Amino acid sequence: MTADGKTGITQRLFMSLFGLIFMAAGGFFAYMILTDVWANYQTRSWTKTPCVIMESQVDVVRDGYRFRVGYQYDFNGREWASYKLNLKDDNVFSKVGEADAKARKYAPGGETWCYVNPKMPGQSILEFSSLAMGFAVLLPMIFVLIGGGVFIAAWTSSSKPERQVRSKADGGSSWKGRLGGAAFFSVFFLAGSLIGYFFFLSPWINSLTSGDWKRTECTILSSRVQTHDGDDGDTYSVDILYSYEANGRGYRSSQYSFMTGSSSGYSGKKEIVRRYPAGSQAVCYVNPDDPSEAVLSKSLGGMAWFAILPLIFMIVGGVGILYSLFGAKDKRPSYTRSRKRSQAAGFSESFKGENAGVSGGGMTILKPKYSPWFKVFGSLFAAVFWNGIVGVAVFQCVKGWMSGNGSIGFTIFISIFVLIGIAIIFGFFHAVLAAFNPKLTITLFSDFICIGDEVSFSWEFKGSASRISRFTLTLTGTEAASYRRG
């Protein structure tokens, strides 16, 4: 705030830039998601056409198992050929069982239906892609809403402290502020929920319900540490291909355990692969309800402990949402105000209710709910916690650029969290400076107050009060009653 009480233009410009970055980043990812969903939706209107499968096989590739298919069809009196299963270009599966299932479904010589683009007959697919990923647009839209809220608040916020004080006295935190806080913490909750479910909760459920999976002899066909090209550098996973028989039929699987996905750290995965050399015999566990699903180990391993990270995000987000919507409610009674000013370094002021007449005695010194140093250490913890997590992603991002695999999209995405981390660091330094500000002491000349009482108080500063350029004091009284029974 400037000396005259108006929001400085520098502060408005900074808030506007911050909001626009949030909106641009969220809008970019929302556009990419919606573009992909729209393209998949348009395939629903393509012409359903009979076709014949000419070739079908599964190839082992660097990132997993690619299903290759080729088919022919007649359209508008002309013969066409296509090699696309769906709109995806690679058709790479992380599990060989999924690729083998496609190979069995689309066996060479079989007849099926394909969907042909009437505007481009050479473009066709065998399957529609799911539209469920459209719900993922909710996450970047939260960034758009937060950015838009910050931008609007920068230019429409109250410019005079008196107006802000009057607004608070009339009803406490506004619903806009509560919704903004809830939207901010919902980012944490959604991110933690999605990561926690797909990478940790689902494997935990599978592990707990696999007690009746049948112990089966299997043959190791190949074993390797699989390398995945990531936007922020390579990641690795255990890839052991093995064959087994169930219900008189042969199957293949490449799933080592219920934990899926990939991560950094090559040596630990290499040690697992070493225990399963190609050509050796091993024991796997087969799902009796779906024999194509099997694992070599039902143990979740050390990766299960990483479930704590998304759980922390879920807890922080959930508590923040509840507190923003239902916490810190400020219901204040109305008072008529009469002032008695003096020319001394401090002043006394009286708040008189309609039913004045009962007065209390004694003296009460008001103390802050949280000490300045509590805020310092609290903001320090927040800065270390947030930037510690974000720092890991930044390291991977820089590593990706140094290796020539940098991603502009991921860099923009992680930059949002970096900006938040910088803001938290500034908040820490602000708390440190505030801790050395002059200390305010407020004394109430009463230790027992009833509704309608007249209450007098005085205030004074300890420290260099000359550092203060503008000072606004608001005293609020609330009533609370506790009952032991009834």
TrEMBL record:
It comes from the Bacteria. The keyword Transmembrane applies. Residues 49-127, 216-298 form the DUF3592 domain. It holds the Pfam family DUF3592. The chain crosses the membrane at residues 12-34, 131-158, 179-200, 303-326, 373-395, 407-436. Keywords: Membrane, Transmembrane, Transmembrane helix. This is DUF3592 domain-containing protein. The lineage of its organism: Bacteria, Pseudomonadati, Thermodesulfobacteriota, Desulfobacteria, Desulfobacterales.
